[in-house]
Amino acid sequence: MKDRIKKIIQTQMQVNKALGKATAATANIGQLYVSDEEDEDDDVNNGNLRQMNNAASADEENKQVNLSEHLMEDQEVYVHGGPKFHTEYVKIIDKSRRAYSFSLDSTKAFEMSLKKPRNGCGDRCTRFRAILYAIWLLIFKHHGRAPGKNGLYAIFFCFSLCVALDLVLVCSMINHLTGPISNVFSVGIPFLFVYPLIAVLAPLYGMIGCIAGSADCLRTYSMMNSTCVMVNYPATLTVMWYLNDEPVYICVVALLYLIKIPLSFFGSKVRNHLENPGYIENEAKFRELSDRTAD
User: Fold this and answer.
1) Does the model's pTM come out above 0.90?
2) What is the DSSP letter of 216?
3) Per-residue model confidence as pLDDT tens digits over 78-109
4) What is the average per-residue pLDDT within 111-136?
5) Closest Cα to residue 235, out of 199, 206, 182?
6) What is the number of other CB atoms lying within 10 angstroms of the CB of residue 187?
7) Which sign, positive or negative, has the C-alpha torsion 66, 71, 72, 75?
8) CA nearest 233: which of 255, 204, 218?
9) Contact in structure between 192 and 174 (CB atoms under 8 Å)
10) Which candidate, 133, 167, 194, 178, places its Cα nearest to that of 252?
11) What are phi and psi of 92, to 5 degrees?
12) Which pLDDT score, from 0 to 100, does residue 57 have?
């Protein structure tokens, strides 16, 4: 009985909102005498109505999906993966969000994203981190194109000179560590054993790469140099400053630190030449073609 009275009150409130108090009173008097079986029938009918409403909403969603797919544009894309290079046609609903697109919509969206103000703390931290990483790449991880015909031998000479100077400085530092031998257990720990023997193996890899003309050895040499710059040399300088070591050998480690900058610059060009020795001939051919088309 209490449940029936609650249902009556709820229906009266709904009807009062829709039709008014007078009509609601006349419409809902008979519900006081409704039996439990009729309540169960009402529950079944309400469940059927809910299922019908859900099915109708699902049909509307399917229509909207089909409509949106109908409005999509077919765009040819290049698929590089798989056993064979091929192209496929895909449907894209928004051209402004497409990667590597040069349409007007994507260009406008890109301009709007660039104009968006980025003055928050997180944006400044990201910008500062990007500046540091860019400086690191330019100084110690240089990626240059292969040299042309004119400056090829000069780059080879400068790179071999830097490798020889790097080897001489490392030999001088080893002489300092072995005389007296107690330096191995003080300054030698960060220089030799932080990354084990990497400071000694790096110039040896560079010498082997120069003699054999191996791009892989020179690439390994560059990776070792960047590791020494990040870890070994700063730790060695800190320990030498703390122990009040001889200023001459502090300058030797500083020179080892600075010599890695020209090594990175000239080494990238030498590696690119060894990996692509036909770059000079291809560049000359392209220049001839460009001159012919310009004339």
Assistant:
1) no
2) H
3) 666 556 666 666 655 555 555 556 667 777 77
4) 85
5) 199
6) 24
7) positive
8) 255
9) no
10) 167
11) -125, 125
12) 59
